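Section 5.1 Outputs to date
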Amino acid sequence: HTVRRQSIKRGEPRQMPSLPHTAESTVREEHFSSRRKQLEDYLTKILKMPMYRNYHGTMEFIGVSQLSFIHDLGPKGIEGLIMKRSGGHRIPGLNCCGQGRMCYRWSKRWLVVKDSFLLYMKPDSGAIAFVLLVDKEFNIKIGQKETETKYGLQIDNLSRSLILKCNSYRHAQWWRQGIDEFVRKHGKDFLTEHRFGSYAAVQENTLAKWPVLCLQTTYTVFFPPLYFLRLSPEIFMKRPVVEGNRWRLDCILKRKA
């Protein structure tokens, strides 16, 4: 990092900004607004330096990732590092042989909340590991009794129960409230059942009714926008998943082709 700092291009900011050295306990209440402004200016100057702006510690502190501001993925919800428990997939007829903790593994992942789905990525590579869709069974629980985990957070949908471990009960409450408020504000259409039992509302004035798939004809197949296929080509078009991979999008398109 020292070598990179010494090789900064000329014209880029080089000097680290500084914060006032006065202790917070000695600051009068009428000066709080100016202290907030000083902190804003400090962070702004830091973010103008590419080396520090792209540093993983800075991105973690601010709560952003490479997916935060992609317009086609919808509005930005809360993000952050979490500890995820393995398992939780709801596969009919398949259960873990033994409910002990020895069956579980904990992995550090970066959780991203969007309007109609949640996903988590591997922090080191940024690879998307799993996408959990918002549907009519979407629900969030916290507490050791519900999750069998101290400071646990459980997120359910029709296909999975995702168990997360937080640093404290307050941290778990922060995640629960942030996810619940964001999804109910931006993804409320996915929380109820719609026409023909679909999980998505009818979209007017569109050429293709996303994500409706026409399977009754041998000539035409309507499919979702390509940007979503790049995100997750293994999306299930019929839920809950009760027939293996039969209704997975890539399998449907292969079968129709």
